[in-house]
């Protein structure tokens, strides 16, 4: 194993993606030890190894060393190269697991990134491609990342455990990010959604829409939930259905919620009516939490704020998600921030220019 005096050292498998992404952006090598060292099945999981292979594909000159048991990883990042890439993701996690990190890295490539990801498009763990397309892309546009080549498209859907989905993502290069001032979320003006079903009756999606509207219609009239039923090769390898909802405010804030059915052969069967009602309640909960960025994209907003120009950026967030709290050590080292809000319901981050 290579050891470097100037490399950052961490222990454990928590925040593996964050550490590797920040290592790639900063150019600092990182060494992670004791990865599930006491587990019955120690070392890196298949989806983590797949993520490391993805980083190797989009960079040039990266050095990756893993010991025999997979419990120690040394990563020396190379140049973010970009270009046209294809990657088969592990079906243990959805494509959103990989796409979240690509959204952080894509604007800083040497060449515009055009990547095809294959695997699971919607599951119960990671943000779905539908939600990232509806919320993360508008957030990136706030930072000046936009253009004709900025696109996220679902070619085929894939549900767990078989997968079979395909997603195309392209992003232009931006050397400078604009500072943002997102402190007023505004009022909810409309709700949009996508009810999808694959390898089940198309009526499932219609039942989801009816049940979700039965709750949301009490609060706002401007609601439209699309149905998406893919057939044949475009429907992946496993049956399933789900719903993603997005609320848009008068000031351009997008708040999201989503639910998906249990994977085939796992857990109890979920009724479409229950799924629709529960997803609508989750959206109402997200709206109650408030903020100018939803829970899914909090960490993305904070990261892009720190990478922006030498100017002050401000964003108002709701209660921090556990994933966002994982960035606290990083934020305390490289940015100045303050937390404010009555009864800790809201978090207000101010990113000051670095010396």
Automatic annotation (TrEMBL):
Belongs to the RNA 3'-terminal cyclase family. Type 2 subfamily. The lineage of its organism: Eukaryota, Metazoa, Chordata, Craniata, Vertebrata. This is RNA 3'-terminal phosphate cyclase-like protein isoform X2. Residues 10-337 form the RNA 3'-terminal phosphate cyclase domain. It comes from the Eukaryota. Keywords: Nucleus, Ribosome biogenesis. Its main location: nucleus. Residues 183-287 form the RNA 3'-terminal phosphate cyclase insert domain. It comes from Ceratotherium simum simum. It is found in: Nucleus, Nucleolus. It holds the Pfam family RTC.
């Amino acid at each position: 194993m290579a050891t470097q005096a100037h490399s950052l050292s961490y222990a454990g498998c928590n925040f593996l993606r964050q550490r590797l992404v920040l290592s790639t952006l900063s150019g600092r090598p990182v060494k992670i030890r004791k990865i599930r060292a006491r587990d019955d099945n120690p070392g890196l999981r298949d989806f983590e190894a797949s993520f490391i292979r993805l980083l190797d594909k989009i960079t040039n000159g990266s050095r990756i060393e893993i010991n025999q048991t997979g419990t120690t990883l040394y990563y020396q990042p190379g140049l973010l190269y970009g270009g046209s890439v294809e990657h088969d993701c592990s079906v243990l996690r959805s494509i959103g697991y990989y796409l979240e990190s690509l959204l952080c890295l894509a604007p800083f490539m040497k060449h515009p990134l055009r990547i095809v990801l294959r695997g699971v498009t919607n599951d119960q763990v990671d943000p779905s491609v539908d939600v990232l397309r509806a919320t993360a892309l508008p957030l990136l546009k706030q930072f000046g990342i936009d253009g004709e080549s900025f696109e996220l498209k679902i070619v085929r859907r894939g549900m767990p455990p078989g997968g079979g989905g395909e997603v195309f993502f392209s992003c232009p290069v931006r050397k400078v990010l604009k500072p943002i001032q997102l402190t007023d979320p505004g009022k909810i003006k409309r709700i949009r959604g996508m009810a999808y079903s694959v390898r089940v009756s198309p009526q499932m999606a219609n039942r989801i829409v009816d049940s979700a509207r039965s709750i949301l219609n009490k609060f706002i009239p401007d609601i439209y939930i699309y149905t998406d039923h893919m057939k044949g090769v475009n429907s992946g390898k496993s049956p399933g259905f789900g719903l993603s909802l997005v609320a848009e405010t008068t000031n351009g804030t997008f708040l999201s919620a989503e639910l998906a059915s249990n994977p085939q052969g796992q857990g109890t069967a979920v009724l479409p009516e229950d799924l629709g009602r529960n997803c609508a309640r989750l959206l109402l909960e997200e709206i109650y939490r408030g903020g100018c960025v939803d829970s899914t994209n909090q960490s993305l907003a904070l990261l892009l704020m720190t990478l922006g120009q030498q100017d002050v950026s401000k964003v108002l967030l709701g209660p921090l998600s556990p994933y966002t709290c994982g960035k606290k050590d990083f934020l305390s080292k490289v940015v100045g921030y303050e937390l404010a809000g009555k009864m800790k319901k809201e978090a207000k981050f101010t990113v000051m220019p670095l010396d």
